[in-house]
Amino acid sequence: MKAETVKRILRFTEDRDWDQFHSPANLAKSIAIEAGELLECFQWSDTDYKLDDVRDELADVMVYCIDMLDKLGLDADEIINAKMDKNEAKYPVDKAKGSAKKYTDL
Questions:
Q1: CA separation for the pair 28, 64 (Å, rounded)
Q2: How far apart are CA 38 and CA 60, in angstroms?
Q3: Phi first, then psi: what are they for 42, rounded to 5°?
């Protein structure tokens, strides 16, 4: 994500004095709520959905995630790469390729 976009998100919150409402717990709740709204776009069909609605809900999830990263002083690249290291160890290509099994069942 571009630095200007992150700054815009943080400025939006700061300009409205909403940081007071952005506890980690409140942000986690907001992420889950927006993820539910994203899922609602696919409620009755896996293929018949409105892309504009999906874009808006996905953006809402991402904005709250950026707010949470900021609130907790976390770096997105750092935490994503650390998690990918774990995922790659759990799901080695030679065992997981083409399989939807959980790592404990590989």
A1: 8
A2: 9
A3: -110, 15
Domain(s) of CATH 1.10.287.1080: residues in the chain: 1-74
pLDDT digits (tens, 9 = 90+) for 62-78: 999 999 999 999 999 99
Contacts of 24 (CB under 8 A, 6+ apart): 68, 71, 72
Question: pLDDT per residue over 27-75, tens digit each?
Answer: 999 999 999 999 999 999 999 999 999 999 999 999 999 999 999 999 9
Structure tokens of 30?
């907001």
Q: Tokens 């776009």 belong to which residue?
A: 41
Helix (H, G, I), strand (E, B) or coil at 20: helix
Token match 């999906």: residue? 54
Q: Domain 1-74: which topology?
A: Helix Hairpins (1.10.287)
